[in-house]
Design brief:
Its EC number is 1.1.1.95. The protein is an alpha/beta fold and 345 residues long. 32% of the residues lie in helices and 16% in strands.
Length: 345
């Protein structure tokens, strides 16, 4: 069985070959540096399965170039950079790996919140500049008490629920907005439920985004949401950058409606250094001091998480091609004809 991994971040992980070397022949292609790069036809045509390692880069080839591919896996949670309908029309299931970095992302969301609300990064930056003059407990602008504050969650899936549990451990009240959870879900978790984004924004002291990116959620947290926000809101986004309208966030931070933001993801990655908000942050404009934290789409990362992600992606492929067991399929609605059970030769 030949598995083609594209958009891989070198160096290669030899543990995969050790784990599956007797069952799988890997062809691994790094993220191209040339925008015009295309995978050689003989390589794509030889693949039985395809893994896209990147959360943002497209597969540098046409679907028709993968004539033998019977399953596609996004090595990670988000799959908005894969053509679900196109693969489905070919009868090829697209799957993801939703269970590898849940704790890391939830931890990162709370870490961004805490960096702002306890001032850890602001204090450190100030003391680095002048450890005497900046030895001041009031130097960070967003310090607040967590006990009794409201932590709002957009999307109470695996990661959203994990983040909510962590916030509850700080004695925060948890409220969530998720129209796709069945009635009664709030009773099973013990959190308050609201039925509109505006209500969530109006009640929350901190809002953490944990919804997938799709046509419905692109720009979802925008000007209307910020207009409804409780004064002093802190926004955290560890999901996907385009869910938050960065222009609207810039305006809301500038006029004070939003007190602060912790962003692990941006609409353009790497960051657009010329965007007004990014530019204000990198240049140290005084009005934004201590109110914004950016991290480089790293919430998912830990060495253990990477190992889990790589292993689980291959396990999804082997389960389907060898056993006929399809897991984590994200394009069932597009599969035409219905997926047939085909074992690898």
């Amino acid at each position: 069985m030949r598995i083609f991994k594209v958009n891989w971040y070198p160096p290669e992980n030899e543990e995969l070959r050790k784990l599956f070397g007797g069952k799988v022949d890997f062809d691994i292609d790094p993220i191209p540096t040339d925008p015009a790069y295309r995978i050689a036809r003989e390589r794509s045509a030889a693949a039985d399965a395809l893994i896209n390692c990147s959360a943002t880069h497209l597969v540098p080839a046409d679907l028709d170039d993968f004539e033998r591919v019977r399953i596609v896996v996004r090595e990670g949670v988000g799959y908005d950079n894969l053509d679900l309908a196109g693969w489905g029309a070919r009868g090829v299931p697209v799957c993801n790996v939703p269970d590898y970095g849940t704790t890391e992302v939830a931890d990162h969301a709370l870490a961004l919140m805490l960096s702002l609300t306890r001032g850890t990064s602001t204090y450190g930056e100030g003391l680095k500049r002048d450890p005497v003059a900046n030895w001041r407990f009031a130097a960070a602008p967003l310090i607040r008490r967590h006990k009794g504050a409201t932590f709002g969650v957009i999307g109470l899936g695996r990661i959203g629920l994990a983040a909510a549990r962590r916030a509850a451990a700080f004695d925060m009240k948890v409220v969530f907005y998720d129209p796709y959870l069945p009635n009664g879900a709030e009773l099973s978790v013990g959190y308050d439920r609201v039925h509109s984004l505006a209500d969530l924004m109006a009640q929350s002291d901190v809002v953490s985004v944990h919804t997938p990116l799709n046509d419905e959620t692109r720009g979802f947290v925008g000007a209307a949401a910020f207009a409804a926000a409780k004064p002093g809101l802190i926004l955290v986004n560890t999901a996907r950058g385009p869910i938050v309208d960065l222009d609207a966030l810039h305006a809301a931070l500038r006029d004070g409606r939003v007190a602060g933001a912790g962003l692990d993801v941006l609409p353009q990655e790497p960051a657009d250094k010329d965007h007004p908000l990014v530019k204000a942050w990198t240049s140290g404009e005084p009005w934004l001091a201590g109110r914004l934290i950016l991290t480089p789409h790293a919430a998912f990362y830990s060495p253990d998480a990477i190992k889990d992600m790589q292993r689980k992606a291959v396990e999804v492929i082997l389960a389907y091609l060898n056993e006929g067991r399809l897991t984590n399929c994200v394009n069932r609605e597009f599969l035409k004809p219905a997926v047939s059970i085909r074992k690898a030769s």
